[in-house]
């Protein structure tokens, strides 16, 4: 077979083997959101936290905190992009596992002013391969696997954070609803006082300054209610955005945002194994391993790169030649020292980054625990005070109803009780937010103290 024919056969074979085809994917120019919560499909087996997959997802009876977290994992826009990035990392790992293709070369030389019958077309035909790539192939495979694991763990950590954010927004919405009910109770009482003041003013039985005080109190409560409603709508919008839903979606949130008491022994156990539990720490370890593989490749690359192959040639007199080609780099000036230095410095930075992140993780947990103790003690005190205040308030209300106490005296006692309820609501919100943060830091559902 003529050399040109061989060349054409090889080209056709390469074009017909393993070729990918193009498929267009046009962009949509309009927003795209799920229109009905009930039609969302949640694959519970892919939920990253152990407490979520066992929870039944049924949006028809409202969404509790766990179901909200499940929607967040399945439909959060940022997680969709993160999963795409994981797919890119998988494709890169696949690419790194492939050996390089051999190089085929064909160079015909057509004679000019040839004498008929004495000159023919000369050519050089060769097949070469970079054997240096084989030396680093196993390291590149290990690097790709570590990079893929890094991407998967980074995605898992982002899922943890999205679950924590959904829990946080759910708890804030519940807390603001509770606060609104307390403020509206306070407003009813303030409005009753102000109505009495207006009647007294009409009879000229009350100084203007006294009426002005009650009017200012009513306006202050209205301002608090308006601010709380504004924050509630802001949290609802943020939750819709987190869940990948249309801004106008009205979620039917049911149930309370609640975590049980902490089991400090279990927390201490998890804290001691934090580097094996937290996905971000595990991702940093995988990234460090990948960088270590890159450093080893850089060290191996300082040795001569070898390219070898077979050569077939013919000169213009018709004489054919066969032989081989061999080329290698001479490590005299460069010796890949620059790439080695960069790889070493990068590995050092990743080593320091992991240690700093680990230290910060411990610090974040250790900061929450004593604050939880203080908040719990404050909550116990507030509950005790509210028991007493509820008793006093009940008696004063009974006295007011039969005319044994005037509205001013009853209002003072009721204001104290309502003020303590507002304070307790704020403390409960702080406790819950810190527990949600702790659940995110330690992973999964919070470890709880078993009931005795």
The share of residues in extended strands comes to: 5-15%
Mean pLDDT: 82
Name the structural class. alpha+beta
Number of helices in the DSSP assignment: 11
Instruction: Give the class-level CATH name of the largest domain.
Output: Mainly Alpha
Radius of gyration: 37 Å
- CATH topology name of the largest domain: Outer membrane efflux proteins (OEP)
Instruction: Tell me roughly what share of residues is in helical segments.
Output: 55-70%
How does the major sheet shape up?
Answer: 4 strands, antiparallel
Taking pLDDT < 50 over at least 5 consecutive residues as the criterion, the unreliable ranges are 446-452
Distance between the termini: 89 Å
CATH homology-level superfamily of the largest domain? Outer membrane efflux proteins (OEP)
Order of helices and strands: HHHEEHHHHHHEEHH
**Order of neighbouring strands in the sheet with most strands:** 1-2-3-4
The rough form would be described as: elongated
Return the CATH architecture of the largest domain. Answer: Up-down Bundle
Q: What is the β-strand count?
A: 4
Write down the domain tally: 2
Description:
This protein is α+β, with helices and mostly antiparallel strands and 452 residues long. The chain has 2 domains: 68-98 and 137-301 and 358-452, Outer membrane efflux proteins (OEP); 102-135 and 304-335, Outer membrane efflux proteins (OEP) (Single Sheet), CATH 2.20.200. Helix content is 63%, strand content 8%. The protein contains 11 helices and 4 strands, in the order αααββααααααββαα. Strands 1-2-3-4 form a 4-stranded antiparallel sheet. β3 and β4 (320-328) form a beta hairpin. The radius of gyration is 37 Å and the shape is elongated. It starts with a helix and ends in a 10-residue tail after the last helix. The model is unreliable at 446-452 (pLDDT under 50).
